[in-house]
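Extended Data, panel c. Modelled sequence:
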Amino acid sequence: MYYFTEGKVQVYPVGVGTDDNPSPLTNAEVTMPLESPAWYPPASIRAEYEAAGEYLQDDSTGAG
């Protein structure tokens, strides 16, 4: 996402849905912006990759 203000551009990563799991339509606002927040693929996404023979690392437990 690109946010243009006062001659500056701020860039934010945005996740999007899939055909099987669409992003919900809602009114939302950013209440706690974080710079470079940690994000780990949830079990459902890791399962999709495993079904395709690919594996994603699960760092959410700190075990790797």
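The mean pLDDT is 84. This feature is highlighted in the accompanying rendering.
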